[in-house]
Amino acid sequence: MYLLSKTASIVKLLFITTVLLQGCTTVWKKQPCKTPAECAEKTASIAGEMQENILSNWSEPEGANRGLEVMIQTELDRNGRVLRMSVIESSGNMQFDKSAMNAIKRVGQFEEVKYVNDTTYSRNFKKLRFIFRPEAI
């Protein structure tokens, strides 16, 4: 799960996912990791790039109140294209929810995903949940 929040010109990004890499020895296709920690670090880096892509495409609606939160689930194909997405938990504000969905739609494809091995894709990137929340600093 990824928490995405943005305030005016300040972007605050919190990575809140558990990387499931027990026994994983590779992340990139044909490029072994030296340790499980290295695999986790590479996976977190990819997830961070994905979050940055989404945030750079998110136009938070004017007047989005602190306390709003929408959770969106996405399903990506093996090449990182968004196949499906749905609102899992609505903020109660349709405009806010739509802005979050539009941010993901604008990205369309997460290039990084096509370079990970099949195990990493299945465990970490096939189905993702993103939480969008306006944050006041």
Write the layout of secondary structure elements.
Blueprint: E1 2-7, E2 10-15, E3 26-28, E4 31-32, H1 36-56, E5 70-76, E6 82-89, H2 94-107, H3 118-125, E7 127-134
Top keywords for this entry?
3 helices; five-stranded mixed beta sheet; alpha+beta; two-stranded antiparallel ribbon; Fusion Protein Consisting Of Minor Coat Protein, Glycine Rich Linker, Tola, And A His Tag, Chain: A, Domain 2; 7 strands; 137 residues
Describe the structure.
This is Energy transducer TonB. Strand 1 (2-7) and strand 2 form a beta hairpin. Helix 1 crosses helix 2 (94-107). This protein is α+β, with helices and mostly antiparallel strands. It has three helices and seven strands. It is 31% helix and 29% strand. The chain has helices at 36-56, 94-107, 118-125; strands at 2-7, 10-15, 26-28, 31-32, 70-76, 82-89, 127-134. Strands 2-1-7-5-6 form a five-stranded mixed sheet. The protein has a two-stranded antiparallel sheet with strand order 3-4. It has a single domain (2-134), classed as Fusion Protein Consisting Of Minor Coat Protein, Glycine Rich Linker, Tola, And A His Tag, Chain: A, Domain 2 (2-Layer Sandwich). Mean pLDDT is 78; it is low at 7-25.
The SS-based structural class is: alpha+beta
**Cα end-to-end separation:** 22 Å
Radius of gyration, in angstroms, nearest whole number: 15 Å
Number of domains: 1
For the biggest sheet, the summary is: 5 strands, mixed
Keywords: Membrane, Transmembrane, Transmembrane helix
Pfam family, one: TonB_2
Protein name: Energy transducer TonB
Subcellular location: Membrane
